[in-house]
Design goal:
The chain is of the alpha+beta class. 53% of the residues lie in helices and 21% in strands. The protein is built from eleven helices and 17 strands. The strands form three sheets. It has a nine-stranded mixed β-sheet with strand order 4-7-2-1-17-16-11-14-13. The chain has a five-stranded antiparallel β-sheet with strand order 9-8-10-15-12, with no helix packed on it. Strands 3-6-5 form a three-stranded antiparallel β-sheet, with no helix packed on it. A hairpin with a 5-residue loop joins strand 1 and strand 2. Helix 5 runs antiparallel to helix 6, helix 5 runs antiparallel to helix 10 and helix 7 crosses helix 8.
Length: 604
């Protein structure tokens, strides 16, 4: 029996050791005998498992070597465990975080498990159900209005090279049978069978917070997938030829507007100056009319005294034909001449007033005529406002244009009244001059009649002449009263016209100030837009540079000692949220014994 058992044990040893591969028996010798290998590039794929809140739980790295020469290759990494994914050869891990292995030609893969190494990004996931935050482990099977918040930010404890040069994509898969009315304002939605897929993109150097809302029933959710790769987006320079031409046209139009505003500002300045002169002339005219109105009483009283004196003399001659008292009659020529002198002073004042008014009116009329008759529609102004960088300047332009149009329209409405003032002044001056001349003629005739009169022989002729003169002077006096009444009415009504002229002067002064500010604004706008095509090209170049990462040189995530690093990418996944299913007990059936078990039973 003992011999039988010994024979059986020898047979087992032959079977066991005969089945082992020769490379496994000679691995150590092969390591010692082989030379150094070479590789053209190395890739790293970092896999991370996160919990449902986004906290990292575990991580491992799959390293890929593109081997060009078989042999021993040295890599670096702080791994707590390594595993050969290409063959059965051992991988040696040194105390100094060196990894040594034998690699054949083509690709070689090995995995390294990592502990306590943070990711370049912080990922925070918050679940809010019906307005209240809920822990992920309490959310499975719940129903209500769900809001899912995903926030990403830079992890300050990790080399920023990954945060600054990598683009992240966050993907969610939602079962349409459990999620309804899905809203993702910053995401891209797509339908895949019965699922809705939502994708968010985080650009390099950006920290984002994304929100997904939906109505859920019996909440369950597949893992959230997060990937991060270098932001290598090849972008061709856009063809800006047509757009540059449009921008040049806009720049030229703004330059033309600035030129037009300059002309408008000059015209408004002249208008303001003319309105100021008109205001001064109108004030002088009003003062002159008021003084004339105030002196009209003395003029009428003087004329009444002359009229009364004539009537007294006429009555005395008629009542005492033998020896009339002619002392009052002898004073008459001097009184008439004095009255004529007062009228001529009034004429001189009116002539000076008319000359000043004509000068002021000429300045105002010239300034008004220089305001351009541009017909700019509201649509054109709105188009200019949309294309302008500074909307304030365009608003000032529009307001100044409207006020200038209103000022010119108001002036054209009262232009006839302004023009008639000169004619009226000339008519009044001529009438007064005629009255003065008539009074002087009367004085001369009275004087001559007194000198040549034969007291008794010409008494009848004197009585007739005095009677006629008294009657004619009464008519003159009545006309003088009518004239002074007209002056009083003119003085009263001109108050309103002068007030309007003063208001026009104030308005044009304000308009001049606004036009000056507008001119400064359009000059600034013209300076800012003088090179719109060049500015646009600079903006495009700057934007292209912002998204151009062609100069980025990849570096290893696990060790800065690693060389020839080509691609480093991150693949992260959260745990799923699932409804726990009840455990089912199955009857264990005794498995049928295989050949090896039956063989060993022979020795039991």
């Amino acid at each position: 029996m003992r011999l039988k058992r010994l024979a059986m044990m020898m047979m087992c040893a032959v079977l066991v050791f005969g089945s082992l591969p020769l490379p496994a028996l000679a691995a150590d010798n092969a390591d010692e005998q082989s030379g150094s290998g070479a590789y053209s590039a190395k890739d790293e794929t970092i896999y991370g498992n996160l919990n449902a809140s986004g906290t990292l739980q575990d991580m491992y790295v799959v390293n890929t070597f593109h081997v060009t020469e078989p042999g021993q290759i040295v890599d670096h990494g702080d791994y707590n465990n390594v595993r050969n994914l290409s063959n059965l050869n051992d991988i040696k891990q040194g105390d100094d975080n060196t990894i040594r292995f034998q690699a054949e030609e083509d690709e070689f893969y090995y995995q390294g498990d990592v502990d306590n190494k943070p990711l370049p990004w912080n990922v925070d996931i918050i679940y809010v159900l019906d307005g209240e935050e809920v822990a992920p482990d309490e959310l499975a099977g719940k129903s209500g209005a769900l809001e899912l918040q995903i926030a990403t930010s830079a992890n300050e404890s990790v080399d920023p090279v990954f945060f600054e040069n990598y683009m992240m994509q966050i993907s969610l898969t939602m079962d349409q049978a459990k999620f309804d009315d899905i809203q993702a304002p910053d995401g891209t939605k797509a339908t895949s069978g019965k699922d809705t897929q939502i994708t968010f993109t985080v650009m390099p150097e950006k920290e984002e917070t994304f929100v997904v809302s939906a109505n859920v029933s019996d909440f369950e959710m597949d893992p959230i997938n997060i990937s991060a790769t270098p932001a290598s987006m090849p972008m061709e320079d856009p063809n800006l030829g047509g757009m540059k031409s449009d921008m040049q046209s806009l720049s030229d139009a703004i330059s033309d507007i600035n030129q037009g505003i300059g002309d408008l500002s000059s015209g408004i300045s002249e208008l303001s100056s003319g309105a100021s002169d008109l205001s001064s002339g109108s004030g002088e005219f009003l003062n002159g009319i008021n003084e004339l109105d105030q002196s009209s009483g003395d003029l009428v009283n003087g004329s009444a005294q002359i009229r009364d004196a004539l009537q007294n003399v006429n009555s005395a001659v008629e009542s005492a034909p033998e020896a009339p008292d002619l002392s009052e009659l002898k004073k008459l020529p001097d009184g008439l001449r004095e009255l004529a002198g007062g009228l001529r002073e009034t004429v001189n004042g009116l002539d000076t007033l008319r000359e000043n008014y004509d000068k002021a009116y000429s300045s105002l009329d010239g300034a008004m005529n220089k305001i351009p008759d541009y017909d700019i529609s509201p649509e054109q102004i709105e188009t200019l406002r949309e294309g302008a960088e500074d909307k304030t300047v365009v608003n000032q332009l529009s307001e100044t244009y409207q006020r200038a149009r209103e000022a010119k329209g108001t002036y054209q409405a009262v232009q006839e009244a302004f023009g008639s003032v000169t004619g009226t002044l000339e008519e009044v001056s001529g009438a007064i001059e005629e009255m003065a001349a008539h009074l002087e003629t009367m004085a001369d005739e009275v004087e001559n009649g007194m000198e040549n009169m034969d007291q008794m022989g010409a008494l009848a002729e004197l009585q007739e002449g005095l009677s006629t003169m008294t009657s004619e002077y009464q008519t003159f006096h009545n006309g003088l009263v009518d004239y002074t009444d007209g002056v009083s009415e003119l003085a009263s009504s001109y108050q309103d016209l002068d007030a309007g002229i003063q208001e026009l002067s104030d308005g044009t002064s304000s308009l001049d100030s606004g036009a000056s500010e507008l001119k400064n604004g359009t000059e600034e706008l013209q300076e800012q837009t003088s090179d719109l095509p060049g500015q646009m090209q600079s903006e495009v170049d700057e934007m292209m540079d912002e998204y151009d990462y062609s100069d980025f040189e990849p570096q290893s995530f696990v060790s800065d000692k690693n060389e020839k690093v080509d691609v480093v990418q991150f693949v992260l996944q959260t745990e799923a949220i699932e409804i726990e299913k009840p455990e089912t007990t199955e009857e264990t059936q005794e498995e049928e014994k295989g050949f090896w078990d039956r063989f060993l039973d022979l020795f039991r």
